[in-house]
Amino acid sequence: MRASPLRVYALAYLVFLYAPIVLLPLFAFNDSRVIAFPLSGFTTAWFGEMWADAQLHNALRNSLITSGSVAVLSTALGLFAARASTRFRFPGKAGAMGLIMLPLVLPEMIVAMSLLVVLLAVGVSLSIFTVILGHVLICTPFAVAILSSAFQSLDQSLEEAAYDLGETPLSTFRLVILPLVMPGIVASLLICFTVSLDEFIIAYFLAGSETLLSVYIYGQFRFPSKVPAIMALGTILVLLSISLLAIAEYFRRRGIARSGGTDTGGFL
Amino acid sequence: MTARPTMIEFRNVHKYYGDYHALRGIDATIRAGEFFSLLGPSGCGKTTLLRTIAGFEGIDRGAVLIDGRDVAGVPANRRPTNMVFQSYAIFPHLSVEQNVGFGLRRDPRSAADKARAVEEALEMVGLKGYGKRAAHALSGGQRQRVALARALILKPKVLLLDEPLSALDKKMREQMQVELIKLQRQVGITFILVTHDQEEALVMSDRIAVMFEGQIAQLADPETLYRRPATRQVADFIGTMNFIPCQVLSEDASGHEVEARGLGRVRLDPAQVPAPRGGDPVVGLRPETLTLLYPGQTAHDREVDGIIDEVIYFGDMTYYDVYLGGTDVEVRLSMRNVPGRPVLDVGTKVDVAWSPEALVLFR
Questions:
Q1: Which residues of A touch B91 (CB under 8 A)?
Q2: Confidence of residue A268 (pLDDT cuts 50, 70, 90)
């Protein structure tokens, strides 16, 4: 194979992107508190040390509650928006959809700051509940994007056919639409869960005295002796994220195949 | 034809999409047990009209009556009609039998009776034994049959077919045309077919409504539509027709006397003269009513000489474009290719026989 400049560029790009992530498991199993080469030996002790920390359990519980709630709420909201945007025409639709999708590109700093100001002004005390509010805001666009793709590949005459065969709009939704977009719903739940789990800024700003997983990890870096345990935790999170995204993509594609449509994009 | 009762009646039906006037005063009746077609180019309003029967489109003025009852405000799920969609709309997550039995969900019959009804419906469309298959694994023709069985199992008063054959290849389409005709005779239900394919409409229908720009231009049986089109637009849309400029010399109750360029003077019966629509007068002539005379043949009707300008060979037929009698009037005529009748070359001088009865005057 010839080392053309483009090939070198592509390779360098991938190394830049993934080398740091590869370092996580490398040092998670390295038998030394110092994060430096050469590697000194193999150990699984860091995983035990990580799990022994009670703060981690607390942060993990908070994060699971937050991300689970966010996944359900964002997907439910996304369901309505996606249905409206693919099925109906109404004045101001483009503007409304634009505003719903905007948090996708809006700096999270701004979302976090403005929410913080408003919540404090209104007098809502900060907790994981306020983090859930913030995360729903940034996750709903993901849900809308995934579910729109599911609704778009749905032939509108399927709905009319069910209606024509005696079903009401409600039973049509239950018997025809819901089963056909279900893979999209599963994909949306998983992606929203992942996005929420990873998120730092909003979790840091709006959690008050509570700690979420991302914030916990950041906090642990202040203690050099705890870094190997964090590497172990990171390794687990990388595996978890990749698995969730892969499952989500599998469901999204299966949904499109099942409703006989063609793929119009996605995240993977 | 025996007088059948009326099944569908359109009374001055108007429909707007915003500023666009999609249906412009449709008046028509469709009889019970009839195979009726709505024929026209895309955008003429035929599908919209069909969807007003199904209940998927409301109307802005006028009335639609199904079996004598005004269906304004009756939703699609409570109308005695069922539809076969252009895309077939087979539920991809259900099996063939679940698809066919979908409309029976609210039927009070026992599960065993319903299963038998599904089996019968599948047998009727030639899909016996396909019940357990996954719907998304079927071919186009099979989906079409499932859609038919699914609609007919509810024994609707009217079956609506929205371009059901347009997605099939030519062979399959012709086969399904014959099957649909047989099926319609077997079940005796009123079939209303929407199509842009004039051949399909001619082959299948008892009567056809030809639509242009939201109006019915002519409603007649296929033969009348073909032989005596009411407007030049209809004549042009259905089959091929030559239009020859002419002058109207005289007109009275017994008929019209016209001078057609290249053909000479002709007397036309009142039946050959539809109501005037405006526009320059022309006489219309179908290609098969003109005949090339081979040496030794004599004309029974009238004759005109001409020169062959173009030869289009079709296997069983040959089309010739011929300039008539030293004029710039060119007509297309079709000849069946039979032994002893060679295909002639461009530039050959020929005699063309034609008959005055075949003419229609448009003005």
A1: 158, 161-162, 176
A2: very low
- Mean pLDDT, chain A, rounded, equals 86
Which residues in A104-133 are b (16+ Cβ under 10 Å) and which e? eeeebeebbeebbeebeeeeeebebbbbbb
Block residue for tokens 């929205």: B162
Report d(CA A106, CA A89) in Å as an integer.
26
The alpha carbon of residue A48 is apart from the nearest alpha carbon of chain B, in Å, by 47
Beta bridge partners of B194: B38, B162
Considering only CB atoms, B92 lies closest to which of A164, A168, A260, namely: A260
Q: How many helices (H) and strands (E) does chain B have?
A: 8, 20
Contact call for A155 and B106, based on CB within 8 A: no
Question: Exposed e or buried b for every residue in B185-218, given b needs 16+ CB within 10 A?
Answer: eeeebbbbbbbbbbebbbebbbbbbbbbebbbbb
* Residue A240 in this model has a pLDDT that exceeds 90: no
A161, B85: Cβ pair inside 8 Å? yes
Look at residues B195, B182, B203, B164 and name the one whose alpha carbon lies nearest to residue B125: B182
CA A83 to chain CA mean position, Å: 21
Is some CB atom of chain A closer than 8 A to the CB atom of B170? no
Bigger pLDDT: A223 or A131? A131
**What is residue A105's three-state secondary structure?**
coil
List, for chain B, all residue ranges whose pLDDT scores fall below the cut of 70.
1-3, 299
Could you report the per-residue pLDDT of A67-94, keeping only the tens digit for each?
A: 999 999 999 999 999 988 888 888 888 8
Write out the two tokens for A143: 């849900």
Give A175's contacts in chain B (Cβ within 8 Å).
105
What DSSP line would sit under B142-157, residue for residue? HHHHHHHHHHHTT--S
What would the pLDDT profile of B251-303 be if each residue is shown by its tens digit?
A: 888 889 999 999 999 999 998 999 888 889 999 999 999 999 888 787 677 88
Identify the three-state secondary structure at position B127.
coil
A148-205 pLDDT, tens digit each = 988 888 888 999 999 999 999 999 999 999 888 888 899 899 989 989 998 999 999 9
Dist. CA A25–CA A34, nearest whole Å: 14
Burial B98-135 (b: 16+ CB within 10 A, else e): bbbbbbbeeeeeeeeebeebbbebbebbebeebbeeeb
Residue B92: list chain A partners with CB under 8 A.
Answer: 180, 258-260
Which of A165, A256, A258 is most worth mutating to test chain B (most B CB atoms within 10 A of its CB)? A165
Q: Note the pLDDT of residue A1.
A: 54
Q: Which residue of A has its CA nearest to B160?
A: A164
Angle at A51 between CA A47 and CA A55, to 5 degrees: 135
C-alpha of A200 from chain center: 12
Model confidence at A267, pLDDT cuts 50, 70, 90, reads very low
Tell me the two tokens of residue A1. 């194979």
Q: Is B10 helix (H, G, I), strand (E, B) or coil?
A: strand
